[in-house]
UniProtKB/TrEMBL annotation:
Keyword Cytoplasm tagged: yes
Entries under InterPro entries matching the protein: DsrC-like_C (IPR042072), DsrC-like_dom_sf (IPR025526), DsrC/TusE (IPR007453)
EC number per UniProt: 2.8.1.-
The protein's name: Sulfurtransferase
Gene Ontology MF terms: sulfur carrier activity; transferase activity
Enzyme class: transferase
UniProt organism field: SAR92 bacterium BACL26 MAG-121220-bin70
Biological function: Part of a sulfur-relay system.
Amino acid sequence: MPDDKKYLSKIPQWSTENATALGLEQDIQVADEHLEVLLLARAFYGNYGFSPSMRPLCKTVAASLGLDKGRSIYLNQLFPGSPAKIVARLAGLPKPKNCL
């Protein structure tokens, strides 16, 4: 299955329950810390019309939740591997354009 098939095709289909189920597929127990990042990513998408790649995701999280949570180390702890890609998937957004 191509990687793009793992992303929701209709943004309104998203729910916290959906995010939790998708998280479990990747061994991520979605908690409040995860949800606050997912909601920020969805707001970013609503404002700009595309999913945030890593740098804009870090800046968005830092602006709303503080510098400590806006660091790539923190986001990697929450979403190990490729945080921007995983955040987009769990947030029900299209895959970020410059993520492989």
